[in-house]
UniProtKB/TrEMBL annotation:
Family, per entry: Belongs to the oxygen-dependent FAD-linked oxidoreductase family.
Protein name, per record: cytokinin dehydrogenase
Entry EC number(s): 1.5.99.12
The keyword Oxidoreductase belongs to this UniProt entry's keyword annotation: yes
Taxonomic classification: Eukaryota, Viridiplantae, Streptophyta, Embryophyta, Tracheophyta
Domain FAD-binding PCMH-type: 1-125
GO BP field: cytokinin metabolic process
Amino acid sequence: MPSLGRGDHGHRVNVSIDGMYVDVGGEQLWFDVLHATLKHGLTPRVWTDYLRITVGGTLSNAGIGGQVFRHGPQISNVHELDVVTGTGDMITCSPGNNSDLFYGALGGLGQFGVITRARVGLERAPKRVRWVRLAYTDVHQFTADQELLISRGAGFDYVEGQVQLNRTLTEGRRSSSFFSASELARLTELALGTGSAAVYYIEGAMYYGDRSAATVDRKLEALLEELSFVPGLAFVRDASYVQFLDRVGQEEQKLRAAGAWDVPHPWLNLFVPRSRIHDFAAGVFDGVLRGARPAGLILMYPMNRDRWDDRMTTATPDEDVFYAVGLLRSAVAAGDLERLERENEAVLELCDRAGMGCKQYLPHHASQDGWRRHFGAKWDRVAALKATYDPRAILSPGQGIFRAVVAST
């Protein structure tokens, strides 16, 4: 995916070693930010799973991944923005300067302005990663261990989780960038032998460098002893930091070669309150999707709400811990798109009917009333920001949040 301004890349990604930040054009790809900062031994703290997307795009939503439990989303790691508003003004904003626009634009879905520059905090970059996947058949043990891991000050530097519906293992595409053929066979045997609808994986990563290389395995072994995964089903890899962060990009190349990348992706991403995650799993994995044909990836992992800044626009559940659940599925065969969209609607209806208090991430709502419910207590602030910075409602009209000129408040 090419980005605007790519030819001017050298002038649009500027690293400050003394300030420990990088100034980045909103059109730049995170993949390019990674390589520019690594030249100085530095790195942003938080990464989306896929790197070939723009800085301005992720910051207009939140930017989530396995480091969020510790550092917050990407929007929580921004020091300053340049924003072009709907009134045509270029405004530099930060927590201490035009702060209403700063907090509004971060997670603001492009409703108040276009992010043209972001100042993103950096840290020292590790060199390598111990990359781990742990298999579970019990969703309660799976979530308990995930929540233990995100509560620790030390341990994994990255925590995510996957839900592998059993039919995906027994009938789906039997290849993996992580698992060997023999490991996939063991997991398939596990899926066939369990009474649950799915096999669950915790995916963890422990960063290390030259000085910590001698102790990383000891730390990892001690951490694994505290967890309740299926005995014998802990899989450990060693990778460079870049290989680990660009793991989805490597998978992309395989899918492109197979003609399975440029297909419709009716994805559904939700934030699910911790108190309802088991209700969600029962209703969705044991219910709506139990007989679903293999169609892609399902993510499920917890985050700490105290790492998010509530002044920003992104809507999250009102609990100390909530889960990101991503139904990242692909329509590869005739009829898949309609079926997947129906299943997504059934999931949303289940959440609404059960009063789970879920919030969509990368949201879509068919009415302004739906958007009001989505933003909840933030709605009045969202409407006031729209009236101030885009009173003619010319930015991102396709979302249907504001269908007409917003009256001044």
